[in-house]
Specification:
The chain has 473 residues and is an all-alpha fold. It has helices at residues 12-41, 77-91, 95-105, 108-131, 136-150, 153-164, 170-199, 204-223, 236-246, 259-263, 266-296, 301-331, 337-360, 366-379, 387-394, 399-424, 430-454.
């Protein structure tokens, strides 16, 4: 293959990592913006002044409702709940198929197709809703199609990282892609909200993120490759590095998946339990902590959108940093890879519920609660250098399938958890939220203990099948 290795000034493996990271930033911006959009787009009773008080004796700020020039949507609570859940009901359907295709034939086109499809759907959504007369079924259809498209993201990303990140570089090369989820959420908190306020139209975020998605796809298509052998821009020196580091660990091309060995692997199921615990924690902090700030501590949406973005940015930065630290510790033989994964997983699992719980003991002190939340969410960044990278340790040849299976199981709490938390906090008091965070601490404690006992960072024996062909699809 003809190579143009002088085009890029940095190693190609870092180029791929950065492009994947920006792709995930777009993914999470596309995923998260719908909730912010609905806050502004749905018709609500006009509030002139609201002097209600709660246990913290804060008045409810009447400036929370932002006027948009678009026609407001008359969607009740049931419609909003259906829209929120429609994404996850289809999201799980493409996880395992995407992992299989990526591991057998390459993840480049799977990831590209996923983000391109989601971007086109985003661009079509506002006009489709308007042409339907504002019927919520159109938004359900849009979110369902987005779920199908974005369900392919992490299995294909995992497969790509496995092909581009030798064992000694796994932490740092996966750091920026994994940090993309937090950075994307931070952008949504600030960019989406303020874009709607400034443009006076709820459709603007769909057009912005959809357009960026198209641009990203074009760059990805021109630059990326599923593995180093098929990159046009890799240097001979870097290619030799891959041959030295990855020989015997990665089999390029179509390969048979050892389903029985995979599905009966104890460390894999241990990993799935740890993933479920993490997702429960992630959803409570992502979806429910802003409710706590808004309904209990009465933090204004335009103020909290800026403040709540800070913890996500801190988490994104520390995710990259923790990946580099884990590589340093493992490569210099300060700790075994299994020990490193368990240490980072423990910090990432136990920090958030402990600090969230401490935040409730601050009572009505808003900024102390927000500080505790920031520290807790930032500590979650260690998880990515632990459990998340562990999906690459067990079987790099089948990391896409492993991620597909693990992520599919996490969809269950994604659908059910919001309703459970809502029932546990009918009055939105600090005491009720304390019980929620107590329960979160118990769940994370259990999943972490399971991982500490049964988890492994060792490559499994069934990782090395024979390759049927060497062609990249």
């Amino acid at each position: 293959m003809e190579r143009n290795a002088n085009v890029c000034l940095i190693p190609q493996r870092y180029v791929i990592s950065i492009l994947i990271g920006f792709g995930i930033i777009l993914t999470y911006s596309l995923r998260a913006c719908t909730g912010t959009v609905m806050y502004h787009a749905i018709k609500r009773p006009k509030v002139v002044e609201d002097n209600r008080t709660n246990e913290c004796n804060f008045t409810h700020d009447s400036a929370q409702l932002i006027t948009v020039l678009d026609e407001l949507l008359d969607w009740n609570q049931a419609a909003q709940f259906a829209i929120a859940n429609s994404f996850y009901t289809t999201y799980l359907l493409t996880h395992v198929p995407a992992g299989i295709i990526s591991d057998k034939f390459g993840g480049k086109y799977v990831l590209g197709f996923s983000i391109l499809s989601a971007s086109i759907i985003a661009l079509l959504t506002p006009k489709s809703v308007q042409l339907s007369g504002g019927h919520y079924f159109v938004m359900i259809l849009s979110r369902s199609c987005s779920g199908l498209a974005l369900g392919m993201i992490f299995p294909s990303v995992n497969s790509l990282i496995a092909n581009w990140a030798p064992a000694r570089d796994r932490g740092k090369l996966s750091g920026f892609p994994f940090a993309g989820s937090q950075i994307g959420l931070a952008l949504d908190q600030v960019v989406t909200n303020n874009l709607i306020i400034q443009s006076k139209t709820w459709s603007s975020p769909f057009y912005l993120y959809g357009s960026f998605g198209i641009v990203w796809f074009l760059m990805w298509h021109l630059v990326a490759a599923s593995n180093p052998r098929f990159s046009r821009y890799i240097t001979t020196q870097e290619l030799d590095y891959f041959k030295r580091e990855m020989e015997g660990h990665i089999t390029f091309g179509n390969k048979a998946i050892p389903w029985f060995s995979l599905l009966t692997c104890c460390p894999l199921w241990t990993l799935i339990i740890a993933q479920i615990g993490h997702v429960i924690m992630w959803l409570i902090i992502l979806r429910d902590f802003p409710i706590y700030m808004k309904e209990t501590l009465r933090f204004d949406i335009r103020q909290s959108s800026l403040w709540i973005s800070i913890p996500y940015l801190c988490t994104g930065f520390l995710t990259v940093t923790s990946g580099c630290i884990s590589d340093f510790l493992i490569n210099n033989q300060y700790v075994h890879v299994t020990t490193a994964r368990k240490i980072f997983t423990t910090f990432g699992a136990m920090g958030p519920p402990i600090f969230a719980l401490m935040g409730t003991f601050a009572g009505c002190h808003r900024f102390i609660a927000l500080f505790m939340f920031t520290v807790g969410l930032t500590s979650m960044s260690f998880y990515w250098a632990g459990t998340r990278v562990n999906t690459l340790d067990l079987a790099p040849n089948f990391s896409g399938v492993i991620m597909g299976i693990a992520n599919a199981f996490t969809v269950i709490p994604s659908v059910t958890l919001s309703g459970i938390v809502h029932k546990l906090t009918p009055n939105k008091t600090v005491e009720e939220w304390r019980e929620v965070f107590n329960g979160l601490l118990v769940i994370l404690g259990f999943s972490n203990i399971v991982f500490l006992i049964f988890g492994s960072g060792e490559e499994q024996d069934w990782n090395n099948p024979e390759s049927d062909d060497d062609d990249e699809q």
